[in-house]
Amino acid sequence: MPKPLQYDLIVIGAGPGGLAAADTAALLGKRVALVERNPVVGGAAVNTGTIPSKTLRETALAISGAKARAVIGLDVSVRRQAKIEDLMRHERVVKASEAHQMRTLLDRYGVMLHQGTGSFVDPHTVRVTRPSPPGGSFDIRADKIVIAIGSTPVRPAVFPFEHARVHDSDELLYITSIPRSLAVIGGGVIGSEYACMFAALGVRVHLIDGRDTLLPFLDPDLSAALTKAMERQGIVFHWKEQVERCHAPRSGEVELQLKSGNELAVSNVLVCAGRTSYADRLDPAAAGFGLTPRGLIPVDEHFRTTVPHIYAVGDVIGFPALASTSYEQGRVAACHAFGSMAKEALAQYLPAGIYTIPEVSSVGLTEPQAKEKNIPVVIGRADYDQNPRGKIIGDKTGFLKLIFDREEMKLLGVHVIGEQATELIHVGLTAMMTGGGANLFLSTCFNYPTLGDLYKLATHDAILKRSELMGKAQANLSRW
Ligand SMILES: Cc1cc2nc3c(=O)[nH]c(=O)nc-3n(C[C@H](O)[C@H](O)[C@H](O)COP(=O)(O)OP(=O)(O)OC[C@H]3O[C@@H](n4cnc5c(N)ncnc54)[C@H](O)[C@@H]3O)c2cc1C
Ligand SMILES: NC(=O)c1ccc[n+]([C@@H]2O[C@H](COP(=O)([O-])OP(=O)(O)OC[C@H]3O[C@@H](n4cnc5c(N)ncnc54)[C@H](O)[C@@H]3O)[C@@H](O)[C@H]2O)c1
Predict the structure, then answer these.
(1) What one-character-per-residue DSSP string does 411-438 give?
(2) 108 — phi, psi (to 5°)?
């Protein structure tokens, strides 16, 4: 084998975590190699997960005519005539454009992309096995290494994934017709998002989950409102259920036998039962670090593994396993590896954005979490239909819920359900990042009419509730 090429940094995996680490190190003037087994960069975020699912959601909303129905009360949906190509066209365009843009940036930053599967030879050497043809392998070496190999869908043994109408979330992107009916297994984030998207297309959707609550990490008001909204869309929930048998004949309906004894017959099955990482395939023992029992890579607050020059970021280290946080982790790891203070830590508050219909977003403490911590709080709530912009867009169910600490009126949590929730959250997130609260919202002039103005309305609500809770005089005297 020829002498290995030497770099300052090798990154394995070109998803959000790996791209951010590579770009950041290159901006710091380092020689960077990025190893990616796929012919395109972007990882699950661009090619199979985040961007495809969000693009499909937007297309489904357009096809369903949901916005027009809310505003003019007329059904202008084209869903009955919609074909699979109509659903997929925009998704193909958006993801190709994103992958191209990321690839162009790598070239601009001078990152050397090696296509192939990376694995450790020793703590400083990575073997790149090229896809065949032409096949073969070569070694590269670096002072520092970042692992960002991501995750893939869990495939419970009960489901025959070789069947053309039994899918995981990767295969879903290659369906050849819009399902007549769909059983979604797993009501986590992926399952809930896809259940909403297909329901919007007019597909009869069953959502089956082993738990008894939708997205139990959300503030209960949001989880309950989302459950109701999904039921209104026609989604049928099957809680505390599991699929015991899945019979998928070549033609005809797929039959599911549930733990309760209930049976379901549907045209398609989508399994969204979590994700897993294959870090063992990197040969971690050759690098000198171990894995958790779940196959994840343990890291410290700088995203360093137990081998100090090797870092790991993104899904391969587990929670929160988001594109948003993976990007940030990649930046922090690269800065730490090369002693840059540009980004020393992950932000204190990490938002969650869930692209169900309606959208949900959340940051900071939920009401039960504040109670658990014995923090006296006051809640401010403003409904979209109390706000002129909310009325204009016809969102009758959305709301913003703010959680303030009762004494100082500092903002502790923000929870939104409704159109643009994942954008609206950023006002509250920024307030929390700067330690702001009620005063900030009272003194800010928001555009009119906007959903942003809901922050002021919810703050007024909190102030009124606080007066009721504390007694008017005391509330006016205390400072916030
Ligand atoms: C359907 C779906 C929807 C999602 N929606 C959202 C969302 O709305 N918002 C959000 O923030 N997150 C979302 N996520 C999560 C997000 O996609 C992931 O958290 C994110 O992509 C993880 O980034 P990563 O860099 O860790 O890994 P990945 O994006 O998985 O990238 C890993 C890369 O490493 C490559 N690779 C693996 N092994 C090797 C190897 N040995 N050698 C070389 N290359 C290798 C892979 O080919 C891949 O390109 C969603 C995920 C899914 C599946
Ligand atoms: N908008 C977003 O931020 C977003 C969107 C999609 C995915 N993601 C990320 O992708 C990852 C994976 O998402 P996911 O939804 O696949 O996993 P998840 O772990 O969030 O949810 C899996 C769900 O499936 C259920 N389940 C598991 N096995 C089951 C079975 N055999 N029968 C019935 N129910 C079963 C679980 O109870 C759980 O509710 C998450 O880490 C998430 O953060 C994020």
Answers:
(1) EEEEEEESTTHHHHHHHHHHHHHTT-BH
(2) -65, -40
Ligand 1 site, residue 45, Cβ cutoff 6 A: yes
Phi, psi of 426 (to 5 degrees): -65, -25
- Best probe residue, ligand 2, of 53, 167, 209, 357 (max atoms within 8 Å of C-beta): 209
For the chain, how are helix, strand and coil distributed in percent, rounded to 5? 35, 25, 40
CA distance 184 to 294: 24
Report the nearest atom of ligand 2 relative to the CA of 169.
Answer: 16
- Ligand 2 centre from 191 Cα, in Å? 6
* Candidate of 149, 194, 350, 354 to mutate for ligand 1, largest count of ligand atoms within 8 Å of Cβ: 149
Atom of ligand 2 nearest to the CA of 153: 16
Contacts of 293 (CB under 8 A, 6+ apart): none
Beta bridge partners of 29: none
Residue 425's closest CA among 369, 352, 356?
A: 352
Q: Tens-digit pLDDT profile for the chain (480 aa)?
A: 678 899 999 999 999 999 999 999 999 999 999 999 999 999 999 999 999 999 999 999 999 988 878 887 877 777 778 899 999 999 999 999 999 999 999 999 999 999 999 999 999 999 999 998 889 999 999 999 999 999 999 999 999 999 999 999 999 999 999 999 999 999 999 999 999 999 999 999 999 999 999 999 999 999 999 999 999 999 999 999 999 999 999 999 999 999 999 999 999 999 999 999 999 999 999 999 999 999 999 999 999 999 999 999 999 999 999 999 999 999 999 999 999 999 999 999 999 999 999 999 999 999 999 999 999 999 999 999 999 999 999 999 999 999 999 999 999 999 999 999 999 999 999 999 999 999 999 999 999 999 999 999 999 999 999 999 887 666 665 655
Report CA torsion sign: 131, 136, 141, 147: positive
CA distance 466 to 380: 9
Cα distance between residue 196 and residue 207, in whole Å = 10
- What is the number of residues in the chain? 480
- Locate the ligand 2 atom nearest the alpha carbon of residue 352 and give its number: 3
Ligand 1 center to 276 CA (angstroms): 11
- 194 touches ligand 1 (CB under 6 Å): no
**Which residue minimizes the CA distance to atom 20 of ligand 2?**
188
Tell the residue number behind the tokens 């998803």, with chain if given: 15
Per-residue CA distances from 329 to 18, 59, 165, 422 (Å): 9, 31, 36, 20
Domains within the chain, CATH numbers bracketed: 5-151+277-337 (3.50.50.60), 166-273 (3.50.50.60), 358-470 (3.30.390.30)
